[in-house]
Amino acid sequence: MRPPNSPHPPPPERSAELRGRFAEEARSERPDLSALCLLVAAQADGTLDDAGIDTAQIALDELAGRLPFRPGGPRSWAVSLRELLGDRCGFRGLPVDYQRLESSLLHEVLRRRRGLPILLSVVWMEVARRAGAPVYGVALPGHFVVGFGPPEEQVLADPFDGGRVLAGADAELLVAGATGGSLEPSMLRPADPLDVVQRILNNVRAWAAARPERSDVGLWAVEFALLLPSHPARLRYERAQLLVQRGDFVEGAGELEAYAGVVAAVDEAAAAKVRQQAHAARAMLN
Hints:
Blueprint: H1 12-26, H2 33-44, H3 50-65, H4 74-88, H5 106-112, H6 117-130, E1 135-140, E2 143-148, E3 155-158, E4 164-165, H7 170-179, H8 193-209, H9 215-226, H10 234-245, H11 249-263, H12 268-283
Antiparallel strand pairs: 1-2, 2-3, 3-4
Helix pairs in contact: 1-2, 2-8, 3-6, 8-9, 9-10, 10-11, 11-12
């Protein structure tokens, strides 16, 4: 049963409008990360209207205005962000935040000052970007952080830990703790904004997958991910499964058959299994 205060999606007309705006922004020459995150949040939370989206953007502007003017090099920027957002404003994460859908919604992260590593990193990046910092996301396996400066001067900070500036082997320990593997240089490259959004949607999908009663969330998260210019083809299969799970057997079967057509080019045996699933979905109508 859905908790009484759990976010609920907007009506179909609003949802269609949000999807159109999301697709347009995602395909623009320079996608706006905060705008994309807030459109996702508005799809999750029907109470977030356009005025609320503007309020969230203004909050980011105001936080940026509280930073010192060009404090210095990458480390000075990292320290200034930590002092403002982590120490003075109290933005950070806790293990319990992984259990809340609100931890993946930017407007709620700004309100609660709690969230997942990647959403807290979005706050860090958007505030720092507005202030002119050389900032970007760093998608470490299992734990998103932010980076400042060029590769030869790179400074990393962990917003989930209040913006702690990482030193020495800290990044290696984060990767080892999350995956058991080692840190590779490629892991320290700046993350593309659309990859950040894809990862946020992956987190929403994982949250919903652990809660079968919230398949509505899983479905819209998949559908938003499919609006991104580049996405895994298997998302179509996931969408089809969710449609069948939710009782939309006709559309689910159609999606399964379409996916089978894609798979057949590389793996006919796998495609045959998907067609069987489509047949089984149609049989549920009888």
